[in-house]
Request: fold
Amino acid sequence: MDREQEEMQFLGIFGIYREACKVIITWRRIFSKITLALILPLSFIFLAHVEVTDLLHRKVVHDKMERHFTPAGSARFNKLTDVISEDRTLYWFFKVAYLTFYLVLSLLSTSAVVYTVACVYTGKDVSFKKVMSVVPKVWKRLMVTFLCTSVAYILYNFAALVVVSLWIVLWGILSAGGDIKFMLSILYVILVFYAAGHFYLSVIWHLASVVSVLEESCGFAAMIKSQALIKGKMLVTAVILFIMNISLFAVQLMFWGLVVHGWSLGTGSRFLFGVICLLLLFKLMLFALVIQTVIYFVCKSYHHENIDKSALSDHLEVYLGEYVPLKSKDIQLEHYEV
Reply:
């Protein structure tokens, strides 16, 4: 990133896209290595999960249908019951294994990309070997932030459940009076606010993950810092992340329709579409990780929080084998004149 920090606050949606593309293209060698080592396996695991989950689900449904038309108490009925139980156990074991590997690779990928972009920003020499030596120490901070974000999601969903429960009680009281349309309109409002709040938490998590890598804050402190940073840039950040989420969902939908359920296309065509989906997915994942780091610097610039590049560079070093995050005193209350 060759822009002055003062200029970054003026970047809009397309400006942030251009900046992210410029970073990836300029440093394509190291990003290619990070992609091959972390993001490509992450993308493969994600798509494989979609395929295997569908296979296991269809097998359970098929066995249930067979059992339904099998006399109860017969040897075949009991055998099918055991098979269904084993299939469900395998299904949930696969789910847990997938989530574990996906989470680890996701946090490692985020750590690697954020660290690399920060090195690019400071003009610091960076190599793939150095990145991979730092990442195992950084991702633990990301794990703390992830767990805290998960707690926030759980609390948020619990609050939403309470609101819906109150709506159900109110429905029982008012529906008898013929106020069904009014109650449905209330439900729609609740759903809209729930979706908006869920997406807002997602935005907080994305920026908090960058804060956790580059600053001393992690966990709830990183989330609070992230919430403060996106003020004034919330619309730009939300639009960019929404487009990225839609793009990722489109690739997943394409894979589900053309590969998982594309029986009429033939094996060769399904394999080709699978490769295309894999290519699109890992490129989108890399682009999304770079973009969220660029957004961090844009938000810092917008709030006139001048980052001392030499200080950031020092804190990105591995000192005595320990990762040293950027301290708040180096990035806060150092306002530049606009």
In short: The longest helix spans residues 75-122. The CA atoms of residues 233 and 299 lie 7 Å apart. The beta strands are 318-319, 322-323. The chain is about 80% helix and 0% strand.
